[in-house]
Amino acid sequence: MSEQKEKTRFSDKLIDNVIGLFETYLNILKLEIRNGAAATFSILIIVVAGMTMVTFAMMMFSISLAWLLTDLFEINKTLSFFIVGMIYILMLILLIAMRKPLKQRLDMFMDNQIENAEKN
User: Fold this and answer.
1) How far is the CA of 107 from the CAs of 28, 92, 94, 100, in angstroms?
2) Which of residues 118 and 37 earns the better pLDDT score?
3) What is the pLDDT of residue 14?
4) Do the beta carbons of residue 116 and residue 97 sit within 8 Å?
5) Which DSSP category does 1 fall into?
6) Quick one: which H or E segment has residue 35?
7) pLDDT, tens digit, 9 for 90 and up, residues 46-94
């Protein structure tokens, strides 16, 4: 009878240990997911802040360029702002025309970054 109780206690302990190990693994997994989400959110905040700053810088640059064109060529301010707008439209057309080579380069860059991250 005592041998039966010892087997029962041993199997109960074994089951408790396995359950404890599984719970610990789940807790570690939850922490890793939280850390990954926090890192992703931090990067997102930095990217949004950076894009906002770049947008304001481009606006200031565009206004300055339009006023410079007005002063240099002694033309109407409206025309100089139109010229600056056309420059941006031309850049957009070039970007659309070059999107496939740019995408290929970006894909190669990302693949290299992933490979380097996996090596380290």
Assistant:
1) 33, 21, 19, 10
2) 37
3) 86
4) no
5) -
6) helix 2-73
7) 999 999 999 999 999 999 999 999 999 999 999 999 999 999 999 999 9
- Of 50, 77, 54, 55, residue with least CA distance to 65: 77
d(CA 19, CA 58): 58
How many CB atoms are closer than 10 A to CB 52?
10
Q: How far does CA 45 lie from the centroid of its chain? A: 9
Beta carbons within 10 angstroms of residue 79's beta carbon? 13
Indicate whether this model's pTM tops 0.70: no
Cα-atom radius of gyration of the chain, to the nearest Å?
Answer: 31
Tokens representing residue 41 in the block: 């959110």
Contact 66, 78 (CB under 8 A): no
